[in-house]
Amino acid sequence: xxxxxxxxxxxxxxxxxxxxxxxxxxxxxxxxxxxxxxxxxxxxxxxxxxxxxxxxxxxxxxxxxxxxxxxxxxxxxxxxxxxxxxxxxxxxxxxxxxxxxxxxxxxxxxxxxxxxxxxxxxxxxxxxxxxxxxxxxxxxxxxxxxxxxxxxxxxxxxxxxxxxxxxxxxxxxxxxxxxxxxxxxxxxxxxxxxxxxxxxxxxxxxxxxxxxxxxxxxxxxxxxxxxxxxxxxxxxxxxxxxxxxxxxxxxxxxxxxxxxxxxxxxxxxxxxxxxxxxxxx
Length: 281
Fold this sequence. Notes:
- This protein has helices at 2-6, 8-25, 88-94, 216-226; strands spanning 29-38, 41-48, 54-62, 69-72, 83-84, 99-102, 106-107, 116-119, 123-125, 128-131, 139-143, 148-151, 160-165, 168-172, 175-176, 186-191, 197-203, 230-233, 242-246, 249-252, 257-258, 261-262, 271-275.
- It has 281 residues and is mainly β.
- It has an 8-stranded antiparallel sheet, covered by helices on one side. Strands 4-23-6-19-20 form a 5-stranded antiparallel sheet, with helices on one face.
């Protein structure tokens, strides 16, 4: 106690410096606190003014939640390519998910839903391979027991029940993987070090005075600050969308920008949905 009293002013100054330093290292500011959406699933809104204006949203999923399961876009069967394109909101309502994000890269872009599209990289839906792995595309791999991992090909798929692919790994064993300087809307996923929490992250972009977008390195920083240890950059750009189920139908949480029009969803070949129990009353 004597030592603390003698060093009081210096200790106070050091505490202030450390606090300011920690705040400076935080890449975003929470807009409110985490709020529960469904049992085991929480949402928080995020914002940053530096190094540019950014607005984002994160979902935190407790993987040990009873009744929780994942679902990726299924195959379109004998039709061309891999899947028939849907908006994320349509995917959510058609398959009765509680939450959904866009997932794997794809081509081509269509204005209308229901057109065949090709997925770039691995997709597995309910244990069935929808699109094969490609060398340059890592994947988010989920078992039927909700064990989640991020890996690069070649994959070990014996236990994988659900999988979607991404453009690159942005967080690896706690270290941010720095990429290029291109700024775009982003969709990403991350896993906590103990494997108990899965994070979804969307950052809006291409919207001056609202949100300009993020680099892949910044996506890794945001995932790390949320609590992730590993992270993957999924498809982004005009496809970035986060949707949740509501009693009246659905709510688009972020502000997607297809065709340069804020609030407009893009038709995507690939989605990742979550089924979760309702909150206890």
